[in-house]
Design a protein that fits this description.
By secondary structure, the protein is α+β, with helices and mostly antiparallel strands. It is built from 31 helices and 33 strands. It has a 6-stranded antiparallel beta sheet. Strands 2-1-5-4-3 form a 5-stranded antiparallel beta sheet. α20 packs across α25 and α21 runs parallel beside α22. 28% of the residues are buried. One of its GO terms (molecular function) is phosphorelay sensor kinase activity.
Amino acid sequence: MLPSTSCAENATATVSRTAVPRRSGPISTESLMTLERPPGPEAPPRPARITLTYLAFGLLWIWFTDGFLAGFGLDGRDWFLAAAGKGTAFVLLSAALIFGLARREFRVAAHAAHLLRAVADGTTDAMFVKDRDGRYLLFNAAAARLVGKTVAEVLGRDDTALFDPDGARRVMALDRCIMESGRPLTSEEVLTSAGVTRTYLATKAPYRDETGAVAGVIGISRDVTDHKRDEESLRDSVWRFRSVFEHAATGIGITDPDGRFLQCNPAYCATLGLTEAELREADLAQLIHPDDRAENMALLRQLSAGEIPGYEIENRFLHASGEPRWVHKWVTALRDAEGRTKCLMALVTDVTERRRSEAELRASEERSRKGAALLSAVMDALPVSVIIADPVGRIVRTNPASERIWGRAPTADSVDGYREYVGYWPDTGRRIEPHEWPMSRAVLNGLTATAVGVTIERAGDRTRRRLELSAAPVIGDAGERLGGVVACLDVTERVAAETLLTSVLDNVLDAVIGIDEGGTVRSFNRAAERIFGFTAAEVLGRNVNTLMPEPDRSRHDGYLANYLTTGSAKVIGAGREVVARRKNGETFPADLAVSAFWLDDHRYFTGVVRDISERRQLEDQYRHAQKMEAVGRLAGGIAHDFNNLLTVINGYSKIVLDEMPDGDPHRESVGMVRDAGKRAAVLTRQLLAFSRKQVLQPTTLNLNDLLDGMSRMLAQLIGADVDLTVRGAPEPWPVRADAGQVEQVVMNLAVNARDAMPTGGRLTIETGNVTLDTGYTAAHPEARPGEYVRLAVTDTGCGMDVVTKARIFEPFFTTKGENGTGLGLATVFGIVKQSGGHVEVYSELGVGTTFKVYLPRDRSDPSPADSAGALRAPPTRGSETVLLAEDEDGVRRLAKMVLQRAGYTVLEAHHGGEALRICEQHEGPIHLLATDVVMPNMGGRQAAERLRAMRPEMKVLFLSGYTDDTVVRHGVLEAEVAFLQKPFSPDALAQKVREVLDAAR
């Protein structure tokens, strides 16, 4: 096999000793080089040595013979003859000397060749010599055997005759490299000859001739195929042993006979928590638990002494962490041929977990034994029926409660045997088939059921009981079904209680909501559905903050978490007013009571929610009524006193104005006083209107006719930039109201609409017949069900926000600044309420406002006074006697003067008591009592009652500046009570007196 490096780099390389058979040792290049000269006891003479010897002999011969002949004194011919004889002798002696040397040299060479052949033919290694062309000059028998040819077949031929072409090229190339470098080389060659591939270890060196020139290659080659195979097998064996040693799960430790560690595998090190280096320094005895140390060391000494072949034991090692580790240890001795102990080997397995598992298993078995006994005791004590069945449904175990619940101890050989048990599905009443029982589904299909409600008939008495069945399959370690178990809970009483509770909850008027710790709704009664607009299915499972508006919705979870963490009872308690949210997004005020309770180690909350919208509205109405009452009392008191003053001012100014000639310079001044008095009278009427203390003179009205009569005046009032549209109902129902007051309502609403449209717009006034049902009145508690005529006034103005809308009917509240009195809409509200009606306002910013006035339908027949009386001007003069009772001097004197001028006899009284005395003292008839309602000493009502008892034929006319009196309030409804509102004009007083006197005729 050619080396991977260049020839020059490998010329001096040798193969390691492991690659050469140990029995012959390495082949050295020095021994290979000695093959250039024959080996022997003497080294063969070299040509230079022979020449020197010959030269020395010649010189000595000349010197000696010349000296010898000189002693004879020869000359001439004798000298010539002597010299010729000396030369001949020299030649002969030289020839003899050279022949002897050559002969000796030949013998030495022959001996060397013989020795070389003997060596070549006697060695088992292949020996060869090649010339520069690669032809073999020498090829021993061993080499011939290796290539499967004879020596004669090889000599004179090159490697192509011996090996495969590739192998021959590699060998010849290597030879050329050696000859070129002039250095020996040892290498492995893998060659194929005669179809057999072998590995050779070849040592080659250049072969030089007598001149020192490289004449070829000489080499020795050894077949190391089997040796290589043995070495590879040995390496594999060592590798396998090392792999097993290093990767074995069992710890392997090797020590000397005294117990000092020589080698340990990783598993052994891991068992003790030490490295191999630490173990080599450790004392084996100190690694063994003190309680096990003596026994282990005694066994170790016996094993080292050869007293025992080995031993097996379980003991405790001390782990590096200090934890004792149980190990199973098998120890044996490795001995030499003489039986001497060379080392000890221990196989160690960590059995700590096994020991622990065995202990746990023993404890578990003990617990299982106790558990089985406990389970049996528990089953016998349980009030719940527990039934256990095998894989086919055969009942193998029941407890005493089963007999009590089922009427007898349940038995069955299979699922089909369940047919004898009578059960029904509660929701449908259908009988339960054998395969439908939860136990059947558990053992046959491996299905689990929890709290399945069924109704059974008990054996024997055939009474029906409501049960909850929970069943589950019993699964083995391999996943196989071993049977099933079912628990039967008798919930008959609980279901009855739940049914009763559900009935109660579904019939209470308040919402009852149950939630868990997370705020999830768990119960939702019918009242909650009605109040919130959600169905129970829509709410159950959702967070209760669904029922809350912001910001309570975001804060709720924090309140709940704070209560659960700290116990702070912010969410617990009764009587809390909150804002709740309906499904449609509408919010409403609610009274909330929350209580907490524990169930199955979990905390739950019950909230009772009462919709207090109606109560809030009533409270608001009550507060508004109180405010209006207070303002009304104030306004009524002011109006009463002011009306007395206005009666005097307007009355006397009228009289003076009537008596003044047209050219009187003071007539204009008196007229201005008269006009101012009229305007003041209008203001007092407004005060009485919004305080609902004015006296109404109701008549049967058709609102369409009233609006037709007002159309021209309304158009002038609102201006040309507002488009007025009046739409009357085809056949409006009649209403009973004071025509003047209804006109005042329309005028005030029209003015309010005009002011809301400063740049113009559209004003629409409509009438219509409507019936208000209980649904409407539930949302508007101030209204009452019934038939009404609706008067709607709609503008396209700026509209109102919620805050403004809530205050528009408050007296003196205005959004017009200094230009408004705050009495317009308050007057509207007072007139409508005093007329038994109802006002509703709809407004949206930027869109406009609609006022809807609802006046009750009048089903009475129109009185004659409503028609003809209103058209006929009554006479103003008379001759009857009138008793005038008035505490205000100015009013009394004015009334007396007016009545006297009209021809009446007037009896004057300052209060009711005085009127009684006058009536008792007056002998003639008294035709009419004209009395103020509120007077000191005795009021007009008491005086009228007593005087009418004395004089039944006497008529009564009440005069008042306000109407806070029972008689007058009745007068609003009772036509037989006559009343004249202050301030009144002289003509009005005269006409009213004449009207009352003529009423009975």
